[in-house]
């Protein structure tokens, strides 16, 4: 390997020094494509500063991965594997990142492996390293997999800080240095008990970033509109989602603007920020078994949308029953060590246990429709169109004490 060095200035973490192999990977068309994919999809329509890209995040993940690998005193080859996994881990993302992912047939991690194996990247990496080892790491497998994709990994640490920085939302500020310097690697990645507060802060940050950014009600509307347009465009042959990993954001915008029908209309709405409106929503925490709501299938939602459209004489393509996405907070499963004893973070932290109890506070079921449809709908109830658990009146009253007193 040559000794050529190149520095890239990252706006969040500072300088990243790249070697010749990393430069060749960075300059490949496959890596340059994610320079044209926004990290937060369409969220710049809510937070105007959120224009950062998947490439920036990948560079940031490389920086943090490098810091963690050095702290763990890995040998040179393993340090480089961690850096390469960080650099390449999002190369399979479709246009507008997670906004398109639920429409695709597989997750971006699977597409990442495909891109690496079927492109020039396979030849470039294979000159020095085993490609399969890097793909395994990206998918959280193997001895080093948890560094890049685990309970408390460098991917998550970077996107929380970066997304907070560019949206201006203060919740994502976490103490990365404290977390990294309290890690050790045995059979898996372990956190020293001294780092618990920093891990708690990262978990709380992610918890609050969901309702504030990732699942803000307008984010849900934007994603619903875009995904339906993408799905219909694929069905109509306007584009081919089997090759989603070759499109960037600009490609999709251009295709939609130059098409006809629904895709063009949705693009016009997005261009002019003429978005659908939230007609009604209810927190899933009001139900007796809120976790069951996530078992509702896409077919059930589509059937409900059709029934609403028929009852109120609406265009079904502009009626959306939406259940907010909710992540598994795997950070709760982080293993913490104190001398020779090992615990789960959730066993030691009252903060984590508090978040467990509050996990269903923010997700909600919503009905999105155009503004001009609002006057047509009357006496709407979600229960008329979806099979939902019973409402837990004790929960509702407890969370609405002030309103109850007023009534």
TrEMBL record:
Tell me a GO biological process for this protein. Answer: dGTP catabolic process
Q: Please report the stretch or stretches of sequence annotated as the HD domain.
A: 54-160
Task: Kindly state which keywords UniProt assigns to this record, in alphabetical order.
Answer: Hydrolase
A GO MF annotation of the entry reads: dGTPase activity
**Which PROSITE patterns has this protein been placed in?**
HD (PS51831)
InterPro entries named among the record's database cross-references: dGTPase-like, HD/PDEase_dom, HD_assoc_2, HD_domain, HDIG_dom
PANTHER family, A to Z: DEOXYNUCLEOSIDE TRIPHOSPHATE TRIPHOSPHOHYDROLASE, DEOXYNUCLEOSIDE TRIPHOSPHATE TRIPHOSPHOHYDROLASE SAMHD1
Task: Indicate what this protein is called per its UniProt record.
Answer: Deoxyguanosinetriphosphate triphosphohydrolase-like protein
Question: From which source organism is this entry?
Answer: Methanobrevibacter curvatus
